[in-house]
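Forum: Protein Structure Q&A
Topic: Joint prediction for protein chains with partners

I've read a bunch of threads here and the consensus seems to be that you should model interacting components together rather than docking separate models afterwards. I'd like to see that in practice. Below is the full input, 873 residues plus whatever partners are listed. Could one of the regulars post the assembled result?
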Amino acid sequence: MNMTKAYATRSFIVIVLFMLTIGGAVGAGIYFGLKKTARFFAPGSDGIITIPGINETVTIQSLADAARFLDMVTTQYAVGLIASIVLVFLVLSLILWVILKLSVASLFGNLVSMPADKKDRKSGESAKKKDHVDKRLEQERQKRLFLHFISVLQREGRLLDFFAEELSLYDDEQIGAAVRSVQEDCKKSVNKYLSPVPVIDKEEGDVVEVDLGFDPNAIKLTGNVSGEPPFKGVLRHRGWKAAKNEVPKLSDVQDTSIIAPAEVEVE
Amino acid sequence: MKEGRYIVGIDLGTTNCVVAYSDMQVERAPREMAKIELFRVPQLTGPGAVELRDSLPSFLYVKEGHEDDSDALQLPWQEEETITVAGEFARERGAEVPHKLISSAKSWLCNSAVDRESPILPWEATKDIEKLSPVQASCALLRHIKNAWNHEMAGDDDPSLCLENQSIYLTVPASFDAVARELTVKAAKMAGLKDIVLIEEPQSAFYAWIDKAGDDWRDQVEKGDLVLVCDIGGGTSDFSLIEVNEGADGLLNLERVAVGNHLLVGGDNLDLTLSYFLAAKLREKKQNLDTWQMRGLVHACRKAKEALFSSDGPDEYPVTVLGRGSSLIKGTIKLNLELADVEQVVLDGFFPACSLDDKPAGSSATGMKEFGLSYEADPAITRHLAQFISSHTDDQGNPRLPTAVVFNGGVMKSPLIRERILDVLKQWHSASESGEIRQINAFDYDLSVAWGASYYGQAARGDGIKIRGGLGMSYYMAIEASMPAVPGLAMPTRALCIAPFGMEDGSQAESKDRLFNLVVGEKVTFDIMSSPNRPDDQLGDVIDNWEDMGITGLTSIETELEGTDERFIPVTFEVKVTEIGTLEFWACSRDDDRKWRLELNVRPKV
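Posted by a regular:
Agreed with the consensus. Here's the joint model:
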């Protein structure tokens, strides 16, 4: 339906402009034509009209009254004359537009509107589908980002391999040797990505004051909590927060559930 | 040189590249230096993961076949036709498939034994994978930096912020000769960085110290000081001497008076040697390591070295190599690395106490030698240092001992190594009963060079102090000795000094009183030699038996004279030190003002 509406507006403008121009031109033509004729018929003019092309001259001698009338009309009613001509053309153009609009609307209605509607419906569907794909892609990306850190810990510090070990099979010294390396490498990665620092930078056991409007996310109150802050208490755990939070840019991969790839050595 | 918004210093290192910049449009007080910032380089750190790092490891991993379209190697910006990936991932992945890894591209750039413009890297590649020339490899690293900058700083499309439109200062080892400098400029041009200026790394490190000390630097050095800049990086060592003088205006000024030879020995050699030492120990226990475990051992050794060499480190440190696959605990190899062992292997091996007269051993018995790069036969850095210092003498012929030392490079992070070098220097002082030496504190051993390059860029715009330096070597041309030819014997040549040490940037020297008749229409070739330790030779000096006088052959220069009707054109030679820090050789006709540029030959000498 939009198409017909757009067509109607467009055609209205075009038709009206066109007709106005024609109307203006015709009005001006009549005006100047009358003026010229009046001059020929005016008393005192020789009244000779030479008709071009056939070398014939006509002498007019007794139309002085008609000339006066024409002259009066062209000087007194010029504006009205042109305006009425233009008006006539305007009315004509409106009639033409209404006829065109009606016939084209039915044409559009029959022929174009059907596929257009289909198309609309289709594009709506694909947009929905695209949204869905985007959403899934976003989910996959989040999944990958979530797994990325653990995959860094595995790559740098073999953390998952360590978790997969059956510790009861080994004695403490053997485990200790491996743990040293795993802990050192994982710590390095954690520091590189998050560089964790305490939330409250005081010694454990120190007395701390919790003011009004504290962030319950950052400070957890335990023990004998009642009433409104400020509270006074003993710091039992300093908490951790990430001083650095650089999120890597990850490209899309086929399988986002991969944490560490299998290794195949080509002989 | 363009007056870009940013002054960018790029340290194109053997093992790491660092980029620092200063924004000249930030408001600041008059005469105040613009703040220098580090550009954190985005790079692949794992398959499909792009992260920012302080430096870009100078490693290239050559992609092939199935990896071309893989998402895992995609960068966030559009890459032109490249076959390599640079940075952290390239280093880690390349360790697993060494035949696809290009490392130490910079050392290859100054290796005159190979054609540096033919595709030879990766050196160990056996299969038919695509190869790069040393120049292309350096270009690949610079291109990564350019693309990364344009992506981060210019949003990929604002040309006024793009790296190619900034003032770029690229650092090279002081010991880089004319050919290596020329090739560095060429690599930068290939990467789209057409407008660059070269600056010597030790000078750059010194600038970084000046920037850090601010106006106080004038209080920390005094007139007559001779400052040794000791730069020991991952793969190379580089020495320079900077003299502090008082100018006519009563202000201190600085002059770089000597540069050392290019030494292919650095931190990586330390770690490798340490891991071979441990591997030998394990073999005694009948435990053999495969290549995968060996790699783990090198990593573990680096960590252990850093821990043991920190100022109040432990006396021993456990080195563990985890078992592969699921046998993590069962396959774990553990070994204690003792401080005494590290001292013996690293300190006595690389930094032995020695006297000033000691010379580096010439033979190669260290087992570190590998065909391709000419690693130093003698890994004892202190002996190289002794040779460097003893070859720079005062008027009486006595070696001039430095009065202060600035350390730079990753190896210098270890206080124990710094102390050892300082001890050796002190010992030389007490042996010659002259003065004392003190340490000037560097601010960062890894980042200084790029930092200082950005400072130098500001100094070049008139905002800070500049070290006077000029040419770090003297250059010679081989001319025939006037003696009768003996059949079957190569004619001995003599060395004509055509560009003396210390020639200022932008100046030129013409050997006016030496005329050469050059044949028209034929290729003319001249042998070029250089020496880093003959600062007293003047333009036009002729040295006999130059091979024994510390002068070494460098390459040849060649051109073809287009002529009209004459057969010979008498010419004189002119050498130009360009503003960007390269050398140009010209042959000038005596009779008119025609000139021909002689191109440096980068192919190996036959």
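Chain B has twelve helices and 28 strands.
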